[in-house]
Automatic annotation (TrEMBL):
It comes from the Eukaryota. Coiled coil: none annotated. The lineage of its organism: Eukaryota, Metazoa, Chordata, Craniata, Vertebrata. SUPFAM superfamilies: Cytochrome P450 (SSF48264). It is an enzyme of class 1 (oxidoreductase). Belongs to the cytochrome P450 family. Its EC number is 1.14.15.4. Keywords: Heme, Iron, Membrane, Metal-binding, Mitochondrion, Monooxygenase, Oxidoreductase, Steroidogenesis, Transit peptide. This is steroid 11beta-monooxygenase. It holds the Pfam family p450. Signal peptide: none annotated.
Amino acid sequence: MGAGSRLSPLSRSFCSGRPCRSVAPAVATKVLPFEAIPRSGNNAWLNLYQFWRTNSFQNFHHVMQRNFQNLGPIYRETVGTYDTVNVFLPRDAAQLFQSEGIFPRRMGINAWAAHHRLVLNKEVISPMGTRKFLPFLNTVAEDFVDFMHRQVRKNTRRSLTVDLYHDLFRFTLEASSYALYGARLGLLEENPNPESQKFIHAVETMLQTTLPLLFVPPGVMRWVNHKLWQDHMDAWDAIFSHADKCIQNIYQEFCLGQPRKYSGIMAELLLQEEMPLDSIKANIIEFTAGGVDTTAIREEIKAVEKQGFGELSKVLNSLPLLKGAIKETLSWPLVTVRLASQTLCQVGLYSLGRSPEVFSNPERYDPTRWLGKEDNNFKALSFGFGSRQCIGRRLAESEMMLFLMHVVRNFKIDTVSKADINTIYRFILMPEKPPLLTFRPID
């Protein structure tokens, strides 16, 4: 990108030092060239060395926050092969998204991908497609509640204090796998089978080994840290092997002439025959790879429960506070990656969620902020926007809402410690040390 490119109007908000307010678009000001965007460091490989030396990969979100404070609301950064323009203000994010049109350019994806996106939309984004897989997610959420009840019954105090991170990870993979492949992994059983254990370990390894590969070319990484590279490749091999097995099972059922029923997103895509097999498998595998006071939320759920739980999609639409809680939680991740023209652009959601320019009392956890008349446009961008939104958005949102709905209906949850939770970046933002939570059944 150069002078006069799509990002140029955003340069009106450049300032030195602390972040400042952008000039309103209606005000005639000189458009600065791309090169005028403040930059964090001039040498890409020296920046990469500093990241390695200071272990800044895990604190990437904090590094971005510091850079926004020092350089302003838009800045450039190059770390190894990772070359970006970073923004965090909603109005600048809006201009980025709106400048791309309905078919944004994606690095490394061929032109025919637009057609595949439309085919995928029918099964995973559209309301009709979402309604098909909601029962699958609901079943797993109910099974997770049963799993927690079994754990509680083992304790004579009728309560369970636990670090829920690994159980949540198992629930997520179990629910996603069921909706995507139409097959249960059995991760919520007392003793999951070896194949399921291998799959969950592969996904964990893939996520843990991805971050360094964002910054270092593959050829260099194979030489610098061959074990990390090999672990990453082995993990993907295991994930693809799982997908191949699921495809074979679907085809076997189809060839046996068994009665046609909904068997998950992959089965629908395979039987439609509108996408090549490799594209279906790649997209499905990409899906595989994504203390608060609950009193008010519980009352909201009770009100819906009194009316009777009918169609799941309508039930979820009747829980605005629960939706607000999810938005409030998801307004705090690290970044959402966006591509505009030939330049990689990032919206710093971690910084956006903590800016007093964007939210009043940004450090306070307040789901009700999403229920009022305040302008919240381009503030909830965890899944992107428009044609660039995450294809798995409905799957993830439904999974979270059904999980929370069933857990909050069945348990009172307390935190053991009131201390703030430190976060680290390992391709996804996660707690440095998962908090201990105490679950008590609601009679």
